[in-house]
Amino acid sequence: VLFVPGLPASLGFDKVLLGTILGLVVVVLAGLSALRYHKTETVLPWTLASFWILVLIAFISGALSGDVNDALRGSVFEPQTASFLAVMGILMTVPLVLQKSKTMSMRVLMFFGVGVVLTLLYSLSRIILGADFLALNSFGAVTVSPVGNFNDLAIFSGLSIIIILITLLLLPLKKSHQWAMAVLALVALDLMAVVNFFGLWLLVGFFALLL
């Protein structure tokens, strides 16, 4: 639960602000922790390196555009701005601090799973029961969810399905946990069917076939 006192900010801006602050805090603390060792090793995936190259290109493009402020920052760090891409890069880089700790990685997956369960069940309940169900003064329509609009919800559901499939294939889980994840995948599929984002069907189908 997050709110910005005295600032009429949108849900999207609140999420970007929270991601920026927490991401920078983790990066700073990880940097200070690395000072305790004479040598630090890390693995930088080529996909992450490619994304940071994209962020650099976005900032160069924004600096050379006709409206520098809108291109770099926008009004509230909109998804089309270079700063938003930089925040995404920070959040994608943060998991590198967990690469040597299997226990912490499992805990992160567990907390992410709890967030997925709450988000998907909440969104599905509002679709079934109507927009008045737990509107919380922030979600006035069924098409608005904690992760954004309907397309954002579909992308979140598709991402959840892909992660569930990878988890079921690679991790030794109890039968009860496997069934729970299978049910969660069905809920995510239901939400994808409601939104019916065709491009996302192709993407999820490709990864499912690949796996």
Please describe what this structure looks like.
The protein has 211 residues and is mainly alpha-helical. The protein is built from eight helices and no strands.
Distance between the termini: 35 Å
Shape: globular
Summed up, the helix count is: 8
- The count of β-strands is 0
Portion of residues within helices: 55-70%
Q: How is the main sheet built?
A: none
Question: Could you spell the SSE succession in H and E letters?
Answer: HHHHHHHH
Query: What would you call the structural class?
Result: mainly alpha
Low-confidence stretches: none
- Radius of gyration based on Cα positions: 19 Å
Share of residues in strands: under 5%
Mean model confidence by pLDDT:
86
Features:
211 residues, single chain, 67% helix, mainly alpha
Can you lay out the helices and strands and say which pair or pack?
Layout (H helix, E strand, L loop, with lengths): L10 H24 L11 H18 L4 H5 L9 H12 L8 H28 L20 H21 L4 H21 L2 H13 L1
In short:
The chain has 211 residues and is mostly helical.
